[in-house]
Amino acid sequence: MNIADYKNVWVFIENANGEAKNVGLELLNQGRILAEANNEKIIGVVIGNDVNAAVKSTIAYGADEVILVEGEEYKDYNTDGYANVMVTLVEKFKPSVILIGASNNGRDLGPRISARLATGLTADCTGLGINEETGDITWTRPAFGGNLMATILCSTTRPQIGTVRPGVFKKAQPDTTRRAPIIKEEIRTSAEIIRTRVVGFIKAMDEAAVKLEEAEIIVSGGRGMGKPENFALLNEFADLLGGAVGASRAAVDAGWMPPLQQVGQTGKTVGPKIYFACGISGAIQHLAGMSSSDVIVAINKDPEAPIFDVADYGVVGDLFEVIPVLIEEIRKNKAS
Amino acid sequence: MDILVCVKQVPDTSEIRIDPVTNTLIRSGVPSIVNPFDANALEAAVQLKEAHGGSVTVISMGPEQAKNALKECLSLGADRAVLISDRLFGGSDTLATSYILANAIKRLGKFDLILCGKQAIDGDTGQVGPEIAEHLGIAQLTFVAKLDVKGDVITVQREHDEGYEIVEAKLPVVVTVVKSINKPRYPSIKSKLAANKAVIDVLKASDLPEINTEKIGLKGSPTKVKKTFTPPRKESGIRICEDTGSGCALKLFEKLVAAKLV
Prior knowledge:
Distance between the termini of chain A: 64 Å
Helix content of chain B: 25-40%
Radius of gyration of chain A: 21 Å
Strand order of the largest sheet of chain B: 11-10-9-12-8-1-6-7-13
CATH architecture of the largest domain in chain A: 3-Layer(aba) Sandwich
Strand content of chain B: 25-35%
Structural class of chain A: alpha/beta
Largest sheet of chain B: 9 strands, mixed
Number of strands of chain B: 15
Order of helices and strands of chain A: EEEHEHEHEHEEEEEEEHEHEHEHEHEH
Distance between the termini of chain B: 56 Å
Oligomer: heterodimer
CATH class of the largest domain in chain A: Alpha Beta
Strand content of chain A: 25-35%
CATH superfamily of the largest domain in chain B: HUPs
Number of helices of chain B: 6
Order of helices and strands of chain B: EEEEEHEHEHEHEEEEHEEEH
CATH class of the largest domain in chain B: Alpha Beta
Shape of chain A: globular
CATH architecture of the largest domain in chain B: 3-Layer(aba) Sandwich
CATH topology of the largest domain in chain B: Rossmann fold
Helix content of chain A: 25-40%
Largest interface: A-B, 94 and 85 residues
Number of helices of chain A: 10
Number of strands of chain A: 18
């Protein structure tokens, strides 16, 4: 492998029903910084069926080029089809870097292609930089449940691949007047190669509450919520803010909230603009899933709760007294 | 059906503390446990065996000490446990580790299903399962919260942003599981005693003749840890502590408005 042959930074633009997910658009913005440091291009890779909206967003959010692969077999994410496309593209175009959002699908695809390409993958990164001497990417990620950070290099193989947490980097301002070349590649994957088949979907009961990874505001409840009915208060609060409802492990283990809404090492990793932690003590496993939020507001009766160590605003008080008044104030403010 | 479960012995990360003076991890005295998500994978395997018959083999790569984790797995219903251990394996990253494990699996026989936890709680990468699948050339189903096997077809519910995707595949496959799939059982005193006496087989590099030593250990690892550090402690935020709940709420509202957050 001649490392000098590998150029440009790619972002895998994951889409849902043809629309780009936020994390890919966030990575275009950070990927541009990495690409420019090495005088390279930032390129969005879109795979799917009927994905015009995702292609448009990829350009509006700053890609220099888009590589587009379409086919009915790519309508739903599937490991074998998407891995086949990515590996075929890598062999043809030789990118230096591939950034993938650390969603469940991203964390399914990343290891599959890195093993096939026999190259390095760094999971769930929260920091991306450049080694000034070599131009290699420095991948920084949490380990030991967030107790330790590690900086990883992949110096001897290409492409350098990483999955990156949603919400860590910010999207650029979209510019819908931007133009960029779209390179259409014809790559089909036969039915025998795709060994898994999506046969159905169970929608979560409250879809709006579940989309944690895409939410800009998250209101989460923990053991301090006391009982499942009390989550109605958080639902009301989240609705008002246009946000999603999350839960700590304690609340999920108690059966008050479904596992899909769990934030933390066992559940989802999130990085919203504002994270409200209500009645959550702040065990390290919970912090591992939400510490990259822009602003953390903690409401807890216990002044010693570790959540206050990471909170930007720490309210020592009874959440059942605080939140209703807060809701009322925000309503009044909206009306005026 | 013959099932293989991959487990890792990990430090109980919930017991890890940071030395406030040196700002480094205090590792001494931290108990070693079976990675909790792997315990879910083992429970799923044992339940399948109970329903369909067959066998459950558990493997772990690690030092001699990892035999304790394997013995725990035997006490929880595994039939056979094998430690994959060799100095040559030291320093392996996920790619090299998965390559070694895939070679060990090939050596141990044919399996209908390979189960792993979604990630280990120390490394948190979630890469070894899918990478084993690629090395073995079989399909993978990740983040699985429910599974069901009928004949040679497995149907799973896979965690998704908006719910659960129902996906099916023909065996053999690699499946990685999330915590909500089940609640691992406790061992009985009898099974614990029996497991303590069990002899754990060990596979060394020389037992895996097909392995390419260029692809294992530090040499075979494309990623290198350049440095580790404890995360910088965040500066303490604004404390709001009024006499009444509504007083707190008004103060918080004021701060959020001032910061243009609402």
